[in-house]
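Narrative of activities, Objective 1.

The group set out to show that a structural description can be obtained from nothing but a protein's sequence at a throughput compatible with the screening campaign. Below is one input-output pair from the validation batch, recorded exactly as produced.
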Amino acid sequence: MKKKRKNDFIQLAVLVLLGLSVILSIILPQVTRQPKEPQILSVSILIRDTDSSLWTNTRLGMDQAADELGAELRFLTLTTPDDAAEQGELLRREMENGADAAVIVPADPDAIASVLSSSAEVCPIVSMESPVEGASGTIFADPVQLGTELAQALLADWTSGRVLLLDSGGGVNHSITARLEAARSVLEDAGVPVAERACQSAGLSTGLRSLLAETGSQWVMAFDAPATLRAAEGKELEQLSVPLYGVGSPVEIITRLEQGTISAVATWSDYAAGYLAVEHAVSAARGKDRATAPLSFSILRGEDIYEPNNQKMLFPVAS
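Output recorded for this entry:
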């Protein structure tokens, strides 16, 4: 009897063990295959302006990418527009404080490159508008093509008179310089007289008239969004009739394009640019290489604004 009970106990134990092994063989693979939640990354966004009012749609795209890809964004502005030294110190501080990646609109690309080469703590950097040596990628429209096509838009309207080219890049913003030089080449090749003046964007709202008088110009070209907007404000303030050609997609610029204050602008999807910048930064922070291609852009006039494709580009709605 005792021997039978012992055998029964052994058989029961074996059955229990077999049952457990079957259960574990089903559960364990599922557990081990459970995807790990991606780490929430900290991405610092540094622009070259004192406020982000011209970056509303760009920020919408950035926020959308951050929500989808698991990132927290930290937006930083400057106390003085285009202060390269302040921007460099902000970037250095963000890297030392453990930012996983950064997106920067450089006031001076060379100054940012210097920070990257001299800092002990470096995270992946994505540049917007202008390439930066040492950055993981650049999100920008081809500056030579943009300057060329913007000049061609002016040539389509030009009858006579000198064209004032506004150099708001301070001699250090490579994209603004390349846009301006491409436009100047096209205009000069067509026999159009040009004048070039260095300026600060903020001063154009009150100083445009004097620049026109000084150079005897009857047409104006600006090569970035802040300069385009301030020149448009100066034109309105002084009730000037000179045609203005510029760059940018913010609603403040598009409104003036619709009203006729601006004759034509080179524009692209700020929303897409912001999304791509954060997407590339997050990928780089996670050790994944992604290629970047130049942003597509269009030359728009007031009558083009409400075409369906342009509506999508200019007035995005984040999902």
